[in-house]
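Page 47, continued from p. 46.
Same chain as before, 221 aa.
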Amino acid sequence: LLTAGHCICSGTNKVLRPNQIRAVLGLYRISEFSGNRIDPVVDPAYEVGIRTIVPHPGYNCGKPSNDIALLEVTERIYFTPTVRPICLSSGSDASARVDGLTATVAGWGWQQENRNLGDKADTLQRAVVDVFRNEECESMYRRGNRSRTIARTQLCAGKSVGGVDACWADSGGPLVTSNNVLIGIVSTGIGCARPGFPGIYTRVSEYAGWIVTVIERFNAS
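Result:
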């Protein structure tokens, strides 16, 4: 399973233990999940255990660089109508050329920036956003007096006029193209859906080699 590095960190900036993380697959509405281990043949949502947490070797809790991690599960994942594999954007093919595309971000995070005025979503939400060139994103942040360097390992997505974005607790969620390619992981930004401040994502294509290496190590053990 792929997620953001900061999602596997505790409030004291230490990497969590595997038994502190729950992984539920195929979930659409949080309130419908009973919390018990469910037979995947019978129920569309089911839980798997986590055996190993592997943050990127260049990631440090509390820092935005290399914000990516892999979770090794304890059992086989069964594919269902709501649990499917996804293609990874790779630096070696056209899937890495994402500037100017539209993509979909999904999650159960807060539905507005001011958490005192709303709640986290119970039903999985999605939003269609525009992917910006890193230079264009940096320029937008500068115009908003929030200078920000967007690294090669990051990308920006949102709407220049605001109003559409990931938000608090969407971290680790996917940014996916229309042809089912994972190009980004929700990472950081300023607020939620503010005009001129697109969300900042981990650029998956920059980590494809590391992901493959870790998975091969998992499979060999």
